[in-house]
Design brief:
The protein is an alpha+beta fold. 19% of the residues lie in helices and 31% in strands. The chain has an eight-stranded mixed β-sheet with strand order 2-3-4-1-5-8-7-6. It is globular and about 45 Å long.
């Protein structure tokens, strides 16, 4: 089989679910399904969202996302989902983002959201129109420092990584 990303390591990492409030997702993904917050999460102030991840027995992960106050980051997504939210994107890790971008561009895929500013997390997205309606994020994870991982309560209080200090609704 001729794989379009042949030679690159590609691993599935997580599914991201967005809603107007992370607190509305916790009864399902934490309480009902047994997800455990292992620490970490915070705000992406530039784009306007808060995020945290839950992990499950067997290694699966779900990322929970909500807009920050005043953000329009999820507006079109919530419009499509009639305000409820749902699965926002699938995340795959690659060992060489530059090579992945070059190969996909050569093959005519439309990519958007290329972000290589932070060596801790470099990313690009395959447009949903290219991949049957699913937003796919490809990310290359770089070295991380030994910074403390905020608790779930800290993230929800706006004190996660890059937190804005404003509690989640």
């Amino acid at each position: 089989m001729d794989l379009e990303l042949d030679g690159l390591e590609v691993t599935f990492d997580h599914t991201a679910v967005a809603a107007p409030r992370i607190r509305d997702l916790l009864p399902i993904y934490r309480d009902l399904l047994g997800g455990r917050h292992l620490g970490g999460g915070g705000d992406n102030r530039r784009s306007g969202y808060r995020t945290l991840q839950l992990t499950y027995e067997g290694g699966g992960k779900v990322e929970l996302m909500e807009p920050l106050a005043g953000s329009d980051f999820f507006d079109s997504f919530f419009e499509l989902t009639r305000g409820r939210g749902g699965v926002h994107h699938l995340n795959f890790h690659v060992n060489d983002l530059d090579a992945a971008v070059a190969r996909l561009t050569e093959r005519g895929y439309r990519l958007h959201g290329l972000n290589v500013r932070d060596q801790r997390w470099r990313e690009v997205f395959l447009h949903p129109k290219e991949v049957h309606g699913v937003l796919i994020q490809l990310a290359q994870v770089g070295p991380r420092g030994a910074e403390p991982r905020p608790s779930l309560d800290d993230v929800l209080a706006g004190r996660g990584r890059n937190g804005n200090g404003v509690p989640s609704p």
